[in-house]
Amino acid sequence: MATQPDQITTGEDHGGLVRRLIARWRDDPGATYRSWFLWDERLKNFRSIRRGIGQVVGEIERGTFGVAYRGSSLETVVHSVAEQRQIFKGADHAFLWKPKLRIPDIYENPENQRAFGHLLDACSCCDTAEEIIGHIHTIDRLKIKGLGPAVANLLYFLHPTLVPPFNTAIVKGYNALTGAKVKLGSWEHFLAMRSGVLDLNDRHRDLLSNDLGAIGGLLFDIGFDRYPAPPLDVSGEALASWGQRLETAREEARTLSKAALREGENERTHTEIQAWLRDLGRKLIN
Questions:
Q1: What is the tens place of the pLDDT at every residue in 188-245?
Q2: Single pTM value for the model
Q3: Kindly report the CA angle at 196 between 191 and 202, in degrees rounded to 5?
Q4: Inter-axis angle of helices 40-62 and 258-285, to 10 degrees?
């Protein structure tokens, strides 16, 4: 009897199991691939976020940005990212001013603020991964307190084929899938993860995308415990256990309640309305 596509058999390597996982994940209407990556409004967010980043850069260059996060142009941009709650919920936490810790130190320190603005401006204008990495090394050498790889979420919207999204769940998913030990808060670790993410994406490009949001969504769903990462040891008991957990995830996707689907639709509608209001506000101003 021929092996069925959904049967987990010994002898498959880790890469084969990853492909099974990706295929299963792509078919789940509640997973980030369908609920966020294939969502038309996601592409519109690129335009508004890029415009917002340009406004942040311009205000920093003119010295009119101010000394607070609340009410700033940066808050508007980061909110546009965070409202894509399918994957970026909580993305604004890293940018909120924490006065007791004095982080991130880009509001009341003019030099750090200008360095942050230069990073965004330089990455907006460059075209290659080497240039982006060079600018990241430059900001990293300054050791600005509290300004870490969370900034990569802004860079992703500038260069989605070169910079992957970044948050706690994505790091957790990457570590689970690869056995790596990437740590949060380190640009060096982010760049190492980026290299590994690109390798993974190249190996499974036919199931993913040039846009690193797709693999970012996969890692997010793994890190969020929606899908189990295949065992690095593909023998015996570990493989059988993974197969059972993957089947459980599949059944949960099949029986996804109408209420859960409606909740996801409500979140997408909320984001669409926010985008419309932003665009309307810009037209009124202009």
A1: 999 999 999 999 999 999 999 999 999 999 999 999 999 999 988 777 666 667 777 7
A2: 0.84
A3: 125
A4: 40
DSSP of 120-157: HHHHHH--SHHHHHHHHHHHHHTT-TT--GGGHHHHHH
Distances (CA, A) of 75 to 52, 78, 94, 101, 228: 10, 5, 11, 19, 34
Other C-beta atoms lying within 10 Å of the C-beta of residue 111: 11
Nearest to 21 by CA among 226, 261, 179: 226
Rounded CA separation 272/262 (Å): 15
Is residue 45 pLDDT above 60, yes or no? yes
> Distance (Å, rounded) from C-alpha 165 to C-alpha 123?
15
pLDDT in tens, 53-74: 999 999 999 999 999 999 999 9
> Going by C-beta distance under 8 Å and a sequence separation of 6 or more, which residues neighbour residue 160?
46, 211, 212, 213
Please report the pLDDT score of residue 285 as a whole number. Answer: 47
